[in-house]
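Run folding on both entries below.
>entry_1
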Amino acid sequence: MAPISIVIIDDHPILRQGLVDIFAGYDDYAVVGSGACGADAVAIAQQQSPDVLVIDLVMPGNALEAIARIRMKSASMVIIVFTASDRVDHAINALEAGANGYVLKGSTANELRGAIVSAIQGETFVTPGLASKMITVLRRPSASKGCGAHLSVREEQVARLLMHGCSNKSIADRLNLSEKTVKHYMTLLMHKLDAHNRVEVVLAVQKWDQKNYDN
């Protein structure tokens, strides 16, 4: 099996080199590039098309914009944010931009590797302690977006097909997306609509429809 190609983007030289050295030491990984800013991330992702991109959030350039641009070009690339920021809004914004995982820099190398493996398998990974905070915030009545959520065009397309009983594979085929990307949009829909499963997403979208119709 070919090694997993990976790119490291971080503006701290010592940390960046440390990550490069760590992954270069694994037989199942091949480091194909590294950079120090958002522009580097976009350029290297385009040039190398790595399987995995590990990127800091707070660095020169707009990391969220870089993530979104990379995601638009590649639905399959695994993007892991590796950052010191434990702010819930930063994590949510990163996932909405297209990241597959959000890992805090206090994590070990094995934990970062575990996050990458989870993301490759189609899961959305968030460092457990921060994930708990996110769930608490998202479920607060005052913070819950519920039927007042704003859905992107793609999120609405996924929601409509879900309402018609389509499976993730069927949605992926109809929208020309990968199943992994459809799962990513499902995660976003559940967050935005304060839903815990597919059925609750459908019910929430129905309420969202009724609210927009009434307005």
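>entry_2
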Amino acid sequence: MSTSYDPLRTSPELDTAVRVAREMLAAYGSTDYADPAAVAQALGATRESLRILLRALGVETTTPPAAAPAPPAERCPAAHPDDPTPCGGPVVVTVLDRHNAGANGCEHHGARLLASVDGARVYPLPDAPEGAAIRVFKAADSTLPYAWVKRGERR
């Protein structure tokens, strides 16, 4: 793994990382510090943006693994009622729409929700394993909106 930074190096990963960082700065550049939820959301967005940038630059730092999240409920809140698929693990992310309404979910249902809602974004929960939000983001990129309808899945 390289530890030097070459500002002329470009890659799709770096372009994506820069775009995500810019979006997070635009969304959370001025946070209402009187609102604990807004501060937590801004901190999570900043943390994940930095992780994405460091990974794209090949200089990602390692951190000790977070404690294992609590086991999932029968179905996470992000699972659509018509989606028959089981949860893909514990609840680890929050998916918000453009009006900041959202739901917590497992990586699987978080990706399906993110793919199905225009303008949605994903954030890791505080106890999420490292990279959970980026895995959801990447999975959503290759997931059809309302995938269970288009594939004929039934509950």
